[in-house]
Amino acid sequence: MMKSAFKTKRRFGQGDAEVMIDINTTPLIDVMLVLLVMLIITIPIQLHAVNLEMPVGTPPTSQEPEKVLINIDAKNVVYWQGLPVSAGELEQKMELVSTMAPQPEVHIRPDKDCGYVVFANVLSSTKRKGLNKVAVLGAEQFVQ
User: Fold this and answer.
1) Taking the mean position of all CA atoms in its chain, how far away is CA 5?
2) I need a surface site. Which of 41, 78, 124, 125 has the fewest CB within 10 A?
3) The pLDDT value given to residue 70
4) What is the chain's pLDDT, residue by residue, as a tens digit (144 residues)?
5) Residue among 23, 24, 20, 21 nearest 10 (CA)
6) pLDDT on residue 89
7) Distance CA 142, CA 116 (A)
8) Between β-strands 105-110 and 67-72, what pairing exists: parallel, antiparallel or unpaired?
9) What is the greatest pairwise CA distance in the chain?
């Protein structure tokens, strides 16, 4: 009977010969753990410092923008800062305000009984003149 190089026979007591096929993995796991520990130990600690040149000086002062109040009453009269204005005067004042360096906040307060056309005209005028900080006030009058 010829012995194979890959198969070894093992006898258990008086029974039949049994072929041993499994590989002993314990030494393989030990070697892998030793390699892992050596790898962790030999990796240098990464301490990178980034030098930044920060600006020196005082930060710019933030100034509160001016607030412009536009009221529209129940009779569709438009008020600029409490004074009644016509449509032409409103356009001129908006043109003047749009060129200011810190652009002021425009607060539009329509009355609940004013015409939508007048309100829409004032709102579209702010858009045409390039006023970006626009708020519509007065929603509290609709809350019951």
Assistant:
1) 67
2) 41
3) 94
4) 455 555 555 555 565 567 777 888 888 899 999 999 998 888 877 777 777 787 788 877 777 888 999 999 999 999 999 999 998 999 999 999 989 888 899 999 999 888 999 999 999 999 999 898 999 987 665 555
5) 20
6) 93
7) 15
8) parallel
9) 120
Round the CA-based radius of gyration of the chain to a whole number and report it.
42
On whether the CB atoms of residues 131 and 97 are closer than 8 A, the answer is yes
| Token pair for 99 | 């060129």
- The residue assigned the tokens 């410092």 is 49
The secondary structure of residue 8, as a DSSP letter, is -
Residue 55 identity (one-letter amino acid): P
Q: How many CA atoms lie within 13 A of 48 on its CB side?
A: 3
Angstrom distance (rounded) from CA 85 to CA 75: 13
